[in-house]
């Protein structure tokens, strides 16, 4: 199993451009999380999906950010328009999800991250 | 609101020395706490969880509800322990959402 897959690994874009980050969770996992990591703010949860439904998006910084999960094997995080302060590493993680019994069902498995630079 | 604080951004020790990475939390409910680790060029991964009360790679962490702490300890640090360590709190009524601390970079010198 390749684990959580994210693409692209690196993205450099100019201010004002649209950016789309992609994530493929581990097969069989019902929960998916998007995080943003910066030096100043550390690792912040942006949005949480369970069974493809957004459960909590209170961490999404503003309307320029949107996330979708059209099916159990794919999610996107879009920034439109992008700004230099959006530069960060964006992580996707998945887990079996709530309601699953057994120790370890809440363990989150992280992707390698996408390093976004907005010039 | 929940919060996780890791007061040290960087901790540097010599090989063989004891290590303690501090973590304090604030949460009014019954928390579940975790330590995640990110080694160089590797993904962020779970190291241990408090409910398992296990030792992983020689690390242990005890939940102290009175002091609202979950410090990570190892009696004898190894060079391969050098990594970024994150303490995380899972709220009991919010699915599997985690709140992470700011992280502590551990450097073990030879």
Explain what you see:
The complex is a heterodimer of chains A (119) and B (110). Chain A is 0% helix and 52% strand. Chain A has no helices and 11 strands. In chain A, the strands form 2 sheets. In chain A, strands 2, 4, 5, 6, 9, 10 and 11 form a 7-stranded mixed beta sheet that branches. The mean pLDDT of chain A is 91. Chain B is mainly beta and 110 residues long. In chain B, strands 2, 5, 6, 9, 10 and 11 form a 6-stranded mixed beta sheet that branches. Chain B has a 3-stranded antiparallel beta sheet with strand order 3-8-7, with no helix packed on it. Chain B is globular, with a radius of gyration of 13 Å. The chains are: A mainly beta (119), B mainly beta (110). Chains A and B meet through strand 4, strand 5, strand 9 and strand 10 of A and strand 6 and strand 10 of B.
The proportion of strand residues of chain B reads 35-45%
The unreliable regions of chain A are: none
Helix share of residues of chain A?
Answer: under 10%
Report the sheet with the most strands of chain B, covering strand number, pairing sense and barrel closure: 6 strands, mixed
Query: Which descriptor suits the 3D outline of chain A?
Result: globular
SSE topology string of chain A: EEEEEEEEEEE
Tell me, rounded to a whole number, the average pLDDT of chain A: 91
Distinct helical segment count of chain B:
0
Q: Hey, which two chains have the biggest interface? A: A-B, 27 and 20 residues
From the N-terminal CA to the C-terminal CA of chain A, the straight-line distance is: 35 Å
Principal-axis shape of chain B equals: globular
Distance between the termini of chain B: 41 Å
- Provide the structure class of chain B: mainly beta
Rg from alpha-carbon coordinates of chain A: 14 Å
For the biggest sheet of chain A, the summary is: 7 strands, mixed
- Uncertain stretches of 5 or more adjacent residues of chain B: none
Q: Work out the radius of gyration of chain B.
A: 13 Å
Q: Report the β-strand fraction of chain A as a percent range.
A: over 45%
The secondary structure category of chain A is: mainly beta
């Amino acid at each position: 199993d390749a684990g959580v897959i994210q693409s692209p690994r690196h993205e450099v874009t100019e201010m004002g451009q649209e950016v789309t980050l992609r994530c493929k969770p581990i097969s069989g996992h019902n929960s998916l999380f998007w995080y943003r990591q910066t030096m100043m703010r550390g690792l912040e949860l942006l949005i949480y999906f369970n069974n493809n439904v957004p459960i909590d998006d209170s961490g999404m910084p503003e309307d320029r950010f949107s996330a979708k999960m059209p099916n159990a094997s794919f999610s996107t995080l879009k920034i439109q328009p992008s700004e230099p302060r959006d530069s960060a590493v964006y992580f996707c993680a998945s887990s079996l999800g709530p309601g699953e019994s057994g120790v370890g069902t809440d363990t989150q498995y992280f992707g390698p991250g996408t390093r976004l630079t907005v010039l | 609101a929940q919060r996780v604080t890791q007061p040290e951004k960087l901790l540097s020790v010599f090989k063989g020395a004891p290590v303690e990475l501090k973590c304090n939390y604030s949460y009014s409910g019954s928390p579940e706490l975790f330590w995640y680790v990110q080694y160089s060029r590797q993904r962020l991964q779970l190291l241990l969880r408090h409910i398992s009360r296990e030792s992983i790679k020689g690390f242990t962490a005890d939940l102290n509800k009175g002091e609202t702490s979950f410090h990570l300890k190892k009696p004898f640090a190894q060079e391969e322990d050098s990594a970024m360590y994150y303490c995380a709190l899972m709220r009991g009524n919010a699915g599997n959402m985690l709140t992470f601390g700011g992280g502590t970079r551990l450097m073990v010198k030879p």
